[in-house]
Amino acid sequence: MQNSEVFILAIESSCDDTAAAVLHNDKVLSNVVANQLIHAQYGGVVPELASRAHQQNIVPVIDAALRKANISKEQLSAIAFTQGPGLMGSLLVGSSFAKSMALALEIPLVSVNHMHAHILAHFIDEEGFEKPSFPFLALTISGGHTQIVQVNDFFDMTIIGETTDDAVGEAFDKSAKILGLPYPGGPLVDKHAQLGNPKTFAFTKPKVPGLNFSFSGLKTAILYFVQKKKLDNPDFIAENINDICASIQYTIVEILMDKLKLAVKETGINQIAIGGGVSANSGIRKAIKDAEQKYGWKTFVPKFEYTTDNAAMIGIVGYQKFLSKQFETAAVVSKARIQF
User: Fold this and answer.
1) CA angle 98, 145, 306 (to 5 degrees)
2) Mind listing the pLDDT tens digit for each residue in 72-131?
3) Average pLDDT score over residue span 236-243
């Protein structure tokens, strides 16, 4: 089979979004996501409800992806799926479907590490978006992960810094909860932050050696700060919500940028790519782009569509693995935690 004829169906079901995409080589033909709104009332993702919703959504989502791509299942070259990390029940829905379909169509099965996919999403052929060259540093930031990764090749990656406790997305969401904002709160903090003054309130940045991160102390500091202010003024949050959010976001962005500056200094690599759900944050995107002028870095910010959990990013890893014939048998198992 010629490379020009490669069609990958990709399935992503690691958390609460059921997603399917079809790629023709490194170009996305369709990228369909079904969101699960039921979790909002619980203030977080409920694993059992997530897996049930995946079972309801997976067939119509895959059907929609194939229809939108305007190809038949018989044209598919391989099926890629998220092996992990993620919620076990959710992962099993995607992997079971992928295995069954690959077996029925007699085509290769490709497993994908969800975190690799966030990094390699930059290699999707997208107009107006340049692809990084190797080596580069990837800052992967999401609700469950905060990592600085040295990327030497498609499948040669090393974590050189990571969080010792909370992930950055968790810090945003928990700060939002303290302020009484609904779940998911991270995007709402960003929305209010754009209307506020980031220098209004000062929060101490945690002192963590090397390239690792810590956000639990900051979250606690924000809680105590808000509690103290509310004692003096019960309407403190309502009257200062924009400035509080701006100050929180400013502090978190500073923490991330300080570690990136250190990583560039230690590795000598000044190509920086960001990925993961929190890379949709306007403050982080601006800081990364500003760094090109400030520090002479070359930076890569993904298209919004490829920041949150999506199947297109699974597909691009699937395509690269297809080219190097890294296939799986039906014995491959899903893993809630997976070796990077």
Assistant:
1) 55
2) 999 999 999 999 998 998 999 999 999 999 999 999 999 999 999 999 999 999 999 999
3) 97
173 is in an annotated binding site: yes
Q: Is 142 assigned to a binding site?
A: yes
How many Cα atoms within 13 Å fall on the side-chain side of residue 164? Answer: 12
Region of 289 on the Ramachandran plot (φ > 0 left; ψ -120 to 50 alpha; else beta): alpha
- Predicted confidence band of residue 37 (pLDDT cuts 50, 70, 90): low
84 assigned binding-site residue: no
pLDDT at 1: 42
State yes or no: 220 annotated in a binding site: no
Any binding-site annotation on 190?
Answer: yes
pLDDT of residue 38: 54
Q: What is the CATH number of domain 131-301?
A: 3.30.420.40
pLDDT, position 48: 61
114 belongs to an annotated ligand binding site: yes
CA nearest 283: which of 312, 257, 321?
A: 257
Q: Is 186 annotated as a binding residue?
A: yes
CA distance 232 to 252: 26
Tokens of 316: 């691009």
Q: Which CATH class is domain 3-122+307-323?
A: alpha beta
**How far, in Å, CA of 219 to CA of 199, rounded?**
18
Q: Is there a binding annotation on residue 267?
A: no
- Per domain, the residue ranges of the chain are 3-122+307-323, 131-301
pLDDT tens, residue by residue, 155-176: 999 999 999 999 999 999 999 9
| Residue 125 is assigned to a ligand binding site | no
Which tokens is 337 given? 């935690």
115 touches 87 (CB < 8 A): no
Burial label for 236, CB within 10 Å (0-12, 13-18, 19+), is: middle
* Tokens linked to 272: 């920086």
pTM beyond 0.85 = yes
Does 141 appear as a known binding residue? yes
Domain 3-122+307-323 identical in fold to domain 131-301: yes
DSSP at 213: B
